[in-house]
Amino acid sequence: MQAGCDSKHKLFINNDTGRVNDTHALSPMTLDAKELLKVEGMKVLTDKGYTTGKYIEICIKNNITTFSSPKAHSSQNNGLFDMQIFQYDKQQDLYRCPANQLLKTNGTIYNKNKHKVKHYKNRQACKSCELRDKCTKNKNGRFIERSIYQEALEENQKRVASNPEYYKLRQQITEHQFGTLKRQWGFTYTIMKGKENVLSEVNLMMICYNLRRLMSIFSLNTLKNKLKELDLYFLRKWESFYVNLTAFPLKPKPLKMQTILN
User: What are the Transposase DDE domain coordinates in residue numbering (predicted)?
Assistant: First the structure.
């Protein structure tokens, strides 16, 4: 279950479910929240499960600033040169290795686990390199996989690193709500099955949570007045819908014998 919450009042904004993990949920969730809140731009804090370059870039293009916890690179802690010490030249689209050799790409974009990457290598230089034992165990020499969204990932990493206190707010914003639902209210699983039914059940719980939070944010009389205004808003919506429905009544379809028998 993914959920969006606001940082000021700690209220649930939106939710979704149906995927095994959070990898593909960042931009769909944030764009949905932005539309619901009717804001021009926003900042979003997430854990590393949501950190995917493609969706970070989509957020940036839609005026959404991400602070997603960076994922550790696979080459770390293996005793070999970390990818971070290879200097990337954006203009020439190549890497310079610790031995001052250039790793180039042929421009081909490969699909790896649903991620689009480019390969950078220099097999000829690796054959006679004195630093090879410290760099790679690959018989063909060192090569680097760079996501086509690597720039968006690096900019996100810089934002998180330069705003450590801001990123820590994430635990204060979302963990408390889920802690209340699961620990205090015992909502650790859903009774319903199927995405639509499950979301309906979860929405009811989150509405109850938000109403309880509103009792702490507003005075009781203020909350009553706001709920009355909301009731009038939906009543006018229904009246407008009912007038349109009666003005253009739908013709009932004839029943089929199979329907009657069932």
Answer: 97-215
SS3 69: coil
Residues 6+ apart with CB under 8 A from 137: 80
Using a cut of 0.70, tell me whether the model's pTM lies above it.
yes
Nearest in space to 44 (alpha carbons), one of 7, 93, 79, 97: 7
Amino acid type, 86: F
Strands (E), 97-158: 102-104, 109-112, 115-121, 143-147
**231 vs 16: CA distance, rounded Å:** 26
Dihedral sign from CA coordinates of 37, 43, 49, 55: positive
d(CA 208, CA 211): 5
Question: Nearest-CA neighbor of 102 among 125, 78, 77?
Answer: 125
**Average pLDDT along the chain, 262 residues, taken 10 residues at a time:** 90 83 87 94 91 93 93 68 89 93 92 86 92 90 91 92 83 83 93 92 95 92 90 82 63 48 36
